[in-house]
């Protein structure tokens, strides 16, 4: 099976590294900048939950600055988009060039709207919903630290492929050690991940703490209230969610599993990168206005993160 990872930052590099260990997978990992250049020149090191090295003899690493390798065009069975939400439209355009006639795409990005952008570029028949709650960050270029085992969930979207089409990828992800789950409600899985990110990311980023610190009662209650504001918007959009106590339990589980991780928003701020706030808390505020409810906690958090952005 030929699989590509496009937008290989921390999470994408981790998915690539584990998939590279599975027999029968031909892997192509497309990155950029100094991390991408290190992977292409010297390979990729993984540390944390597992320590191992991926040689550049075993994986085709390529660089956005150089372009897609022509040998890969039109040959890929599955493309995983792991870039930031604001890169997904561009990455979906690259995926269109890479996929074979029966190939599929999934976007593991955070936030609302990226899956619809993929469907717009590639057509709904090629797109799965997907989420990941694994924790990963980059201590140095060419190295990814796996900072917490989370969950990988794939799901179907209206007009999109179903479980039968996902089985080959689910089986490879299982062999790579990801224990993937399947859902027939792709919209709900994207929202459940968004609810975690609006609760965890801005608070951990502003406080400058690892995820586990949000288990402290005062931070946990702020995170939970922010999450439940988002859940009210989702329910008014007719998204089917579990009840609040189950959402709370999910938040606690992910904070425990990724307690030593620096969330992606904290990493973005520390590295002077634009955050995904527009697709997270800011999107909740805008959608709340559309369905007629106020979301003051999300509004304050979005304003604070926007004020911290380096232009
Ligand atoms: O998705 C994440 C992120 O950091 O963006 C979590 C699951 C919160 C892990 O840190």
Write structural notes for this entry:
This protein has helices at about 10-20, 35-40, 90-100, 115-120, 165-175, 185-205, 215-235, 245-255, 265-270, 280-290, 295-310, and strands spanning about 1-5, 25-30, 45-50, 50-55, 60-65, 75-80, 100-105, 125-130, 135-140, 145-150, 150-155, 180-185. An eight-stranded mixed sheet has the order 5-2-1-6-7-8-11-12, sandwiched between helices. Strands 4-3-10-9 form a four-stranded mixed sheet. The radius of gyration is 18 Å and the shape is globular. With about 300 residues, the protein is of the alpha/beta class. The chain contains eleven helices and twelve strands. It has two domains: about 1-185, Rossmann fold (3-Layer(aba) Sandwich); about 190-310, N-(1-d-carboxylethyl)-l-norvaline Dehydrogenase, domain 2, CATH 1.10.1040. Helix content is about 45%, strand content about 20%. The model has no long low-confidence stretch (mean pLDDT about 95). Ketopantoate binds next to α6.
